Amino acid sequence: MTNTIDTDDDIKVGLAALASICPVLKDVIAQTPDVPLRRTEPGFASLASIIISQQVSKQSAAAIYGRMEEYIAPLTAKRYLELGEEAWIKIGLSRPKQRTFLALCETIERGDIVLDELSAMTAADAMEKLVAIKGIGPWTAEVYLLFAVGHRDIFPAGDLALQQAAADAYGLEQRPNDKKLRAMAESWAPWRGVAARLLWAFYAVKKGRAAMP
């Protein structure tokens, strides 16, 4: 068994494992017919799209990312730095996101992080590498490792949709916060990456709208 989720068959194996260890998730699985894989290619472009999507609507994120692809070709850390602030403003990046991209690109160019090597690391070591970059928090790092790198045992407990889905699944009156949901998810190891996908899909079933990043 690999440490990554790469195929729909991996999702099926993970769901079977979760159903065997958690009666609540077994019931959630029965209510959730489609749990998508949603893998992307690892690298700067994927991480950039996740950074852009923070705290903006999907429509705004898509527009900003589209301009980034237009202005920064090829879409690399080196090219981002070469173009400078005037291009960053035209793309529509806020000042905080400009600073995050600057820190990320400088870290890549110094060789302090190699995005292609994160898949060979443990999830904890990969997280440590990413959150050391100013402006990249746990949610961004976890979503990147989950969907781009494919780490099997990542769970973005700070995600509000996951918190709400967990509350619905367990019949809780309030959403569990990051700390409480992270503790709940410990029993789902080593398939927390599938559990996250399941709960996002369950949220879509319950609320009638998608919330997966």
Describe the model:
There is one protein chain. The chain is mainly alpha-helical. The chain has 12 helices and no strands. Helix 8 packs across helix 9 (about 140-150) and helix 10 crosses helix 12. The two termini are about 25 Å apart.
Task: Please count the beta strands (DSSP E, at least 2 residues each).
Answer: 0
Average of pLDDT? 95
**Apparent shape:** globular
Largest sheet: none
Order of helices and strands: HHHHHHHHHHHH
Number of domains: 2
Low-pLDDT residue spans: none
| Helical percentage | 55-70%
Radius of gyration: 18 Å
- For the terminal residues, how far apart are their CA atoms? 26 Å
Q: Could you say what the CATH architecture of the largest domain is? A: Orthogonal Bundle
Count of helical regions: 12
Structural class: mainly alpha
CATH homologous superfamily name of the largest domain? Hypothetical protein, domain 2
Bin the strand percentage. under 5%
What is the CATH domain class of the largest domain?
A: Mainly Alpha
How would you sum up this structure in a few lines?
With 213 residues, the chain is an all-alpha fold. It has 12 helices and no strands.
